[in-house]
Write a structure and sequence with these properties.
The protein has about 475 residues and is mainly alpha-helical. It is about 70% helix and about 0% strand. Keywords: Membrane, Transmembrane, Transmembrane helix, Transport.
Length: about 475
């Protein structure tokens, strides 16, 4: 069984980094692009909610920011569900729930139900798609994992090119309620590609029957004795013992850390409640150690700042341009300048890393340095052509790093622990995003300017650039020793 799994992983058609892997990546890309249609239309939905429901901008932004926050905050729950059931099941339920929920906003007549449906339910469903897609990519790819991840998330950048004008056309033509209905229908198109993806055979959990005994065929297929008796000659096949006798040589069985013998319970023992309690404590201690480890903290903080910067730019870029005397009809082109360079850099960053031109640490360092500089220049400069150029540079800094969460976590924690660790990072990203309305309210409503917020985010990017520079230096020192 172990040999067959190894052969399956090396198969050029169905194994790791195979043709099926790339087909799976394409379907996951289509699924993510369709499910996140609602989140990439938040700018238009924001103004539509204000005018349709007659609420303040703070209240109108709540369901939109709540949706983005819960798309990460529900990460631990979705990571557990992927481990408990399957990534495919989580994707199927999440895609259907996302489309049905956004469409049902057509019937909503107050902001409370909009917070529940669009903010909570749709946000949790989007989180399920995020976690399930990332785990499936980790299972299907090894050598080309960063490239596959970059390609998958490139489609999300394409959303930023066509969705704002499309959503604005729908809002003007059918109103905000009709926009919700039609966007929900588009989101439901994520269901067909989800039907074509599944975890590879070697990544599926091995399940035993309800009884504690192991059948003889399973023992013969999975458990090897400590010493194997094999014929000295190389003949294979069936032999008649009455024809001749063969001399046998004893080959010692080599124990490895992944040996299934060590994982099998004793057939003469039973699982007591004390054993179960001990195992639960051991698992909890392992999870706690991972969540307080330095690699987890660095990755969680790093990608939290990346996501916070992206969310702030998508939500506030037009408003920042308006504060600098640029008309909103022209300010929307800042998003197009951002989207073009972001789309280009997303697949390019993974290709650069997988080809060995730059390391993951080097790409992260460049991204943080560039974004810190761009944020400071946004404060100092106010001409429209310069802001277009800065938006393009912001897209480069975002595209370099936004797709590297899964490769970075896999590098530090491995594929087996990916659902749990990815969910933990997503939780902290969601906690940070939920503070967005308070940050915007403090600097814009109370202090009258976004300059303080831009300085704040630039300082965080500069600090993280120092951390990743230190990681790069440590990696180069250790490389000759490996």
């Amino acid at each position: 069984m172990a040999v067959s799994m190894v052969c399956a992983k090396k198969d050029s058609r169905f194994g790791v980094d195979s043709r099926r892997s790339w087909v799976t990546a394409v379907f996951l890309s289509l699924t993510l692009a369709a499910v996140l249609i609602g989140q990439h239309s938040v700018g238009v939905l924001f103004y539509g909610i204000v005018h349709t429901y007659g609420v303040s901008r703070k209240d109108a932004s709540l369901p939109l920011l709540l949706c983005q926050s819960l798309s990460f905050l529900a990460g631990p729950v979705m990571g557990y569900l992927c481990s408990r059931f399957s990534c495919r099941m989580v994707l199927l339920v999440s895609t259907f729930a996302a489309g049905a929920t956004v469409s049902s906003c057509f019937f909503v007549d107050n902001i409370l139900y909009l917070n529940i449906l669009f903010g909570i339910v749709y946000g949790v469903a989007a989180c399920g798609v995020h976690v399930g897609a990332n785990v499936l990519v980790s299972q299907h790819f090894e050598k080309r994992r960063a490239t596959a991840c970059s390609i998958i998330y490139t489609s999300l950048g394409i959303n930023s090119l066509y969705l704002p004008p499309l959503a604005e056309f729908l809002r003007v033509t059918y109103g905000i309620r009709g926009t919700f209905l039609l966007l929900g229908g588009l989101i439901l198109h994520s269901l067909p590609p989800t039907l074509a993806v599944r975890s590879p055979e070697w990544a599926k959990p091995r399940r035993q029957s309800s009884g504690s005994a192991v059948t003889q065929p399973e023992m013969n297929a999975e458990v090897a004795p400590n010493n194997l008796l094999l014929p000295e000659n190389g003949t294979q096949g069936c032999h008649n013992p009455d024809d001749h006798e063969e001399e046998f040589t004893e080959l010692p069985h080599v124990q490895t850390s992944s040996s299934c013998i060590n994982d099998l319970p004793s057939l003469n023992s039973t699982n007591t409640s004390g054993d179960k309690t001990y195992m639960r404590k051991a698992t909890l201690n392992t999870i706690t150690r991972e969540f307080i480890s330095m690699p987890f903290v660095v990755n969680a903080v790093s990608f939290t700042i990346i996501t916070l910067g992206l969310s702030a730019f998508l939500l506030l870029s037009v408003d920042i341009a308006k504060d600098k005397g640029i008309a909103p009809s022209s300010g929307v082109f800042l998003l197009n300048a951002f989207a073009v360079t972001d789309i280009v850099m997303r697949p390019l960053s993974g290709l650069v890393i997988d080809s060995g031109v730059l390391s993951l640490e080097s790409v992260m360092l460049v991204g943080y340095l560039l974004q810190s500089l761009v944020l400071e220049l946004f404060v100092l400069l106010d001409s429209f052509p310069v802001m277009l150029a800065l938006s393009a540079l912001f897209g480069i800094s975002n595209g370099l790093r936004i797709t590297l969460l899964m490769p970075s976590l896999t590098k530090h924690f491995g594929v087996d622990r990916m659902p749990l660790v990815l969910g933990g990072v997503g939780f902290w990203i969601g906690v940070t995003l939920i503070t967005g309305p308070f940050l915007v309210g403090h600097w814009r409503d109370r202090l009258g300017s976004y300059d303080g917020l831009l300085h704040f985010m630039a300082a965080f990017n500069a600090a993280l650039a120092i951390i990743w520079a230190a990681k790069l230096c440590l990696q180069r020192r250790q490389k000759p020793l490996l």
